[in-house]
User: Which sequence fits this backbone?
């Protein structure tokens, strides 16, 4: 149906036969390989692709300097929002794109992450004292991720037997339950509609923020003046988290776990007949998807410096879903492009209206700004009519073959010592 | 444990009174069946006889409402499908159930799932043991593709394979789980002559080279008669016959199950249709044998059609 064009054999794949070569150092073993796309030469890593990725990274890292320098603080804040939603969408992509489960309640995990981060941050800041204030954010971010993952696990229990529409309805309801619970101030934790932090509490500042704000100041003439503002700081923080999320999600997709998700998505019965534990695969999908909701939520809470339940509306869950569906389910580049388009397009229109239609009179300015969601809707309708598989559809995973592994040379692996039993012997039958 | 092992009397699979009831329908009704390790056993029967349902009972997709199915002395009742796959029962599906949007190689790699262990941690951090296992999975999968002759298609999407190759891919995927018993649900369905001859060869290799017991549902009688060492016949969920191929071929109950009561009329209709399809004139139907003599002389041909054999052909058959 979709993406059937690219099925020719990928002979150009740069294959790195590094899996069994010597012993990697401990550092290499842990960090060196994390960022490598796939040990068995999956997907073409052509020089062009590497160059484009590098260029994109350079642009992404330089962009805030330019924007802040030119005084476009609003646009920078919008970029932080886009980044957070892309992280959310990457998490949702695990659930919907890889594992094939429809989730309409993404905001639940975002909200849980945000609230968990802020609720944990204040006592932790008091505990650590001002000198270790910078430690608070990294600790509570991981904590928020884990809390969200735990909530994801809780949700996975009742929905284990549900599929498709029914699953969508349950997750939708769950998203609303979480939001309304936050509004109702359970155990006096969330402070209801007033939000957190409560008056008298102060959010600890993130690591190195004050230091960077005070030391980095670049000016060129009168036009350009760059300092590390809140927006700049969070832009970089979210960008780094986004890159980590991309690497981790990609690693998980290109693994035994990822294959079990894909098999489950394609055919649950056949997958379980091949030995895939469906319960386990679904649970991992929910847990790992929710984890990124928690991470994004923690960044969101600290970026805003406080939170109330409003941003976690159903509409926003739908927007995250739209990012994944329009970008291309199961495709990380798709999610990135979808996020930039769906989150960025309305913001761009608003920015344009505010900054460049000023002279045309207030009416047009506010009209264009207010109708930005109409443009978004139009875009979605066109997309779904013209390109249902998404902007950048999921690509099949190509492998560089080992060739006809006839001899027993590769049998020095102890990882699958128990597997040799019935495997056909070399050259048998040919 | 010892008691259980003793009870299964050396059979690989043993169904005792296995029954499943859907509402008022007993889709599989008190079936007793034994499969010896290292054999090729066929399960035949008309459409809707409950053959695939029996496979579903055996592989844990359904749970028997009565009776028991033992695999190596362990009851499969209430066990999850993936656990049974781990025990060593693997299967293919009647209406091919490949992972369509995955590549051919990946399909087989999923088959390795049950014999490999890496999980979340290895996947996230690309640990050396994870990468070693991943490499091993790929190598094994390639070997299985080689076994069924699909190496050249390794990076094609499964959905894009020709029909016969999809069937072989399903077999490769099932074999990749390293089963002791592989259940093939109509592997020859929709195959042409030469493809099904290749399939015969493949199934024999599964048993002879890999020493895997083969349990086969098949409508293509040529395949069944070529391969099966023992045949069970189901009709309306009930086991109506079992025995060696030659016995089944001439078993009146089986023939009746396939054609119904009014044999003479059915044979006539079948012949007429056959002749018409060849464009031959249907002037006078061939002389029909005496109805009461029919059961003895009626034999199933390669299409599962009951034919009344001419005496000389029968002689030739018996000689062979």
Assistant:
């Amino acid at each position: 149906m979709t993406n059937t064009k690219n099925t020719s054999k990928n002979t150009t794949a740069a294959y790195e036969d590094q899996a069994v070569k010597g012993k990697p150092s401990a550092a290499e073993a842990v960090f060196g390989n994390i960022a490598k796309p796939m040990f068995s030469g999956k997907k073409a890593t052509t020089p062009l692709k590497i160059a484009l990725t590098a260029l994109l990274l350079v642009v992404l890292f330089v962009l805030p300097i330019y924007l802040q320098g030119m005084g476009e603080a609003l646009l920078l804040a919008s970029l932080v929002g886009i980044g957070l939603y892309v992280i959310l969408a990457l998490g949702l992509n695990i659930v919907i794109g890889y594992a094939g489960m429809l989730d309409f309640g993404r905001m639940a995990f975002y909200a849980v992450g945000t609230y968990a981060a802020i609720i944990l941050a204040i006592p932790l800041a008091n505990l650590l004292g001002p000198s270790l204030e910078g430690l608070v954010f990294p600790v509570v971010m991981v904590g928020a991720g884990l809390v969200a993952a735990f909530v994801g696990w809780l949700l996975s229990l009742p929905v284990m037997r549900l599929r498709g529409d029914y699953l969508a309805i349950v997750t939708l309801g769950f998203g609303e339950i979480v939001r309304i619970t936050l509004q109702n101030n359970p155990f006096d934790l969330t402070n209801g509609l007033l939000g957190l932090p409560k008056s008298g509490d102060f959010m600890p500042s993130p690591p190195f923020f004050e230091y960077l704000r005070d030391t980095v100041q670049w000016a060129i003439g009168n036009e350009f003046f760059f300092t590390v503002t809140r927006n700049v700081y969070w832009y970089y923080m979210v960008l780094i988290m986004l890159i980590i999320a991309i690497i981790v999600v990609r690693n998980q997709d290109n693994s035994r776990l990822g294959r079990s998700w894909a098999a489950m998505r394609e055919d649950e019965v056949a997958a379980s007949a091949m030995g895939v534990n469906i319960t386990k695969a679904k649970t991992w999908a929910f847990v790992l998807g929710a984890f990124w909701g928690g991470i994004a939520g923690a960044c969101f809470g600290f970026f805003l410096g406080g939170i109330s339940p409003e941003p976690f509306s159903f509409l926003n869950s739908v927007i995250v879903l739209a990012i994944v569906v329009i970008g291309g389910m199961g495709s990380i580049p798709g999610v990135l492009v979808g996020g930039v388009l769906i989150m960025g397009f309305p913001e761009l229109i608003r920015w344009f209206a505010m900054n460049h239609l000023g002279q045309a009179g207030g009416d047009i300015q506010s009209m264009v700004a207010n109708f930005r969601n109409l443009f978004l809707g139009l875009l979605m309708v066109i997309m779904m009519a013209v390109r249902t598989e998404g902007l950048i559809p999921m690509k099949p995973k190509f492998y560089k073959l080992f060739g006809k592994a006839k001899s027993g040379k590769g049998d020095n692996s102890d990882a699958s010592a128990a597997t040799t039993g019935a495997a056909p012997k070399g050259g048998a039958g040919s | 444990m010892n008691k259980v092992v003793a009870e299964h009397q050396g059979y690989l699979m043993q169904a005792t009174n296995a029954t499943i009831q859907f509402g008022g329908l007993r889709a599989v009704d008190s079936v007793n069946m034994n499969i010896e390790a290292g054999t090729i056993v066929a399960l035949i029967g008309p459409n809707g006889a409950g053959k695939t349902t029996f496979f579903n009972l055996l592989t844990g997709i359904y749970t028997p409402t009565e009776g028991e199915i033992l695999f190596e002395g362990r009851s499969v009742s209430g066990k999850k499908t993936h656990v049974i796959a781990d025990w060593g029962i693997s299967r293919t599906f009647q209406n091919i159930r490949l992972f369509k949007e995955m590549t051919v190689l990946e399909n087989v790699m999923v088959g390795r799932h049950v014999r490999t262990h890496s999980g979340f941690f290895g996947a996230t951090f690309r640990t050396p043991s994870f990468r070693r296992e991943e490499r091993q999975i790929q190598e094994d999968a390639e070997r299985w593709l080689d076994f069924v002759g699909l190496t050249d298609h390794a990076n094609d999407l499964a959905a894009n394979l020709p029909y016969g190759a999809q069937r072989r891919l399903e077999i490769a995927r099932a074999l990749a789980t390293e089963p002791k018993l592989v259940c093939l649900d109509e592997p020859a369905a929709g195959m042409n002559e030469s493809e099904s001859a290749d399939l015969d060869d493949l199934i024999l290799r599964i048993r002879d080279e890999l020493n895997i017991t083969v349990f086969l549902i098949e409508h293509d009688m040529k395949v069944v008669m070529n391969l099966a060492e023992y045949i069970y016949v189901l009709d309306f969920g009930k086991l109506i016959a079992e025995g060696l191929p030659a016995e089944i071929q001439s078993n009146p109950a089986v023939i009746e199950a396939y054609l119904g009561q009014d044999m003479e009329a059915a044979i006539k209709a079948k012949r007429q249709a056959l002749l018409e399809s060849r464009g031959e004139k249907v002037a006078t139907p061939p002389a029909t044998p005496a109805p009461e003599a029919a059961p003895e002389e009626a034999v199933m041909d390669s299409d599962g059609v009951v034919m009344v054999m001419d005496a000389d052909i029968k002689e030739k058959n018996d000689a062979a």
User: Anything to note?
Assistant: The longest helix of chain A spans residues 133-159. DSSP finds 15 helices and two strands in chain A. Chain A touches chain B through 69 residues (CB under 8 Å). The first strand of chain A starts at residue 217 and ends at 220.
